[in-house]
């Protein structure tokens, strides 16, 4: 995972012309949620990948083109599902509030 910068994750070293990037931040009452887990599920709901959020609540996936679901799991919170569309050449920024 890349280091966090103000306003989101740094894209230094990421070739966004050939990558489909899904990234964002998990917050609770406006505060970042570290050590939550974000799962990447394909369009049929099958598990594809999982990452923990950083100390600043950020996460990133490199995905294929298409529709995905992010399932966010954190202590003392119900799971949150967020639909997102990934496309090569773009960065899908997702804000998840739990």
From TrEMBL:
Keywords: Isopeptide bond, Ubl conjugation
Superkingdom of source: Bacteria
InterPro entries found in the cross-reference section: CarboxyPept-like_regulatory (IPR008969), DUF1416 (IPR010814)
SUPFAM superfamilies: Carboxypeptidase regulatory domain-like
Pfam families: DUF1416
The keyword Ubl conjugation belongs to this UniProt entry's keyword annotation: yes
Protein name: DUF1416 domain-containing protein
């Amino acid at each position: 995972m890349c280091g966090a910068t103000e306003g989101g994750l740094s894209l230094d070293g990421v070739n966004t012309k050939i990558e489909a990037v899904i990234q964002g931040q998990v917050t609770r009452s406006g505060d970042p949620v570290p050590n939550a887990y974000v799962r990447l599920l394909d369009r049929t709901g099958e598990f594809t990948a999982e990452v923990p959020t950083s100390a600043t609540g950020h996460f990133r996936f490199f995905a294929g083109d298409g529709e995905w679901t992010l399932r966010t799991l954190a202590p003392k919170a119900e799971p949150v599902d967020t639909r997102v569309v990934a496309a090569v050449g773009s960065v899908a920024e997702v804000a998840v509030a739990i």
